[in-house]
Amino acid sequence: MDICDVKVCPSVESAARDYDLILDALFGFSFKPPVRADFFAVVELMQQTKLPIASVDIPSGWDVEKGKLTECDVEPALLISLTAPKLCARQFRGEHHYLGGRFVPPALHRKYELNLPVYPGNELCVKL
């Protein structure tokens, strides 16, 4: 299936066979472990795959503050933090960590002491 010319996996079984990367954007940052049964098959695939995983904001199954709670939790190769890295990003051991958050107003930087990096030129993401 294609959505906006991006091929989307039709089933969990075909993911590891037909694709080169898994984009992990399964849960939002308000997720609280444990993973519900409806998502077991997808999370199990990510736990067992040899394909690189790119997680958006928080790797699936991780606690937003405590991070990886078990050795079975997803281990992404790439983490794309949104707005600011969450506390769980301290446990990220993958090779690439990017931040997308140029849109955060300076007043919020100061109020929450975000200490965000400078974005070069017109870049919307920065490598951490």
Automatic annotation (TrEMBL):
GO terms for cellular component: mitochondrion. Residues 1-116 form the YjeF N-terminal domain. It comes from the Eukaryota. Keywords: Isomerase, Metal-binding, NAD, NADP, Nucleotide-binding, Potassium. One of its GO terms (molecular function) is metal ion binding. It is an enzyme of class 5 (isomerase). Pfam families: YjeF_N (PF03853). InterPro entries: YjeF_N_dom, YjeF_N_dom_sf, YJEFN_prot_NAXE-like. It catalyses: (6R)-NADHX = (6S)-NADHX; (6R)-NADPHX = (6S)-NADPHX. Its EC number is 5.1.99.6. The keyword Translocase does not apply. PANTHER family: NAD(P)H-HYDRATE EPIMERASE. This is NAD(P)H-hydrate epimerase. The gene is Dsim\GD24551.
